[in-house]
Amino acid sequence: MSQSEVREEHPIAEPFPIAPGVYAMRGTRGANVGAVVTDEGIILIDTPLIPQEAWKWRDFLQEVSGGKPFLYIINTDHHRGHIVGNMWFDCPVIAHHIAWRYMRGYRDNFKQRVRQLFKKQPEIQAHLQDIRIILPEITFQEKFAVFKGGRQVRVIHVGGHTPATSIVYVPDAKVVFAGDLISLGEHPFMTQATSKAWLDGLTLIRRLHPEVVVPGHGDVGGPEITEPISKYLRYIRSHVRSHLKAGHSKVDTANALAPELLPWFGIPKYRRPKITQQIKQGIGKVYVELEQEMRQKGELPPREEKSASKEEK
After folding, report:
1. What does each C-alpha distance from 132 to 13, 34, 57, 107 come to in angstroms?
2. Tens digit of pLDDT for each residue in 283-305?
3. Could you write out the DSSP letters of every residue in 107-138?
4. CATH class for domain 15-221?
5. Where are the domains of the chain?
6. Are 47 and 61 contacting, i.e. CB atoms less than 8 angstroms apart?
7. Best CA proximity match to 262, nearest among 286, 235, 287
8. Residue 103 has what pLDDT?
């Protein structure tokens, strides 16, 4: 199989150890990925989007494991950056039931959008002409554990980033793979988000007392890397709550808060208009979420029902 070099502006990511028998590869185009090597074989956490990176990752793991088989893929979410690379590994997939529901709906338009990401990189696009969506064979609702080769790998549904978001905990190594619950140095995508569940998931990571946390995007660190996104979400919730109490609309709230949030992370000038819209979408999601919470608690008056028909004059 030909494994063309990826263009210089998107170099192939490098795998590295993070704990005994636990590995990560960061800087991939999709999301950071991980692996746990057991006496019986290898358990993967997400898979690289770019074929060349998936092949590099596969070959690396075969080498460090002494040729052990791939046992399972755990997908922490249903987005393309986590699941497209499943097709390069011959093993069953584990994911939350909601992720399975999304993934089974991926058809030709989804595959075409993936290919379009690399329209200026034909050496990548050429290997994405026949994308196969490998659906989860094993799904769960709240928690799931894999016991293989003397190791335990726990999968915990947290939601937050999307309804399907899960984290992976390796107790004997004290490692957490946080998926897209943590994206360092960038504004989070919140189009499917629930901010309260997101904050609860970050709190759970801290309560697990890991020594190593692998984010969905960004550098590996410790539990302290949960704090930037926690602070960001708390800021949005606090200020959206104030705007709701003042009777401000969703649009006015987003327009007021977006300029305050934009400088939180270093954004190149040419990306600011697009990122501003992304921030406004996230504020809008939190606005709707908090409005419902506050009405249920009696902090806002019940929504007035609109008349079904206008009175005749």
Report:
1. 23, 21, 19, 10
2. 999 999 999 999 999 989 887 65
3. -HHHHHHHHHTTTT-HHHHGGGTT------SE
4. alpha beta
5. 15-221, 231-296
6. no
7. 235
8. 98
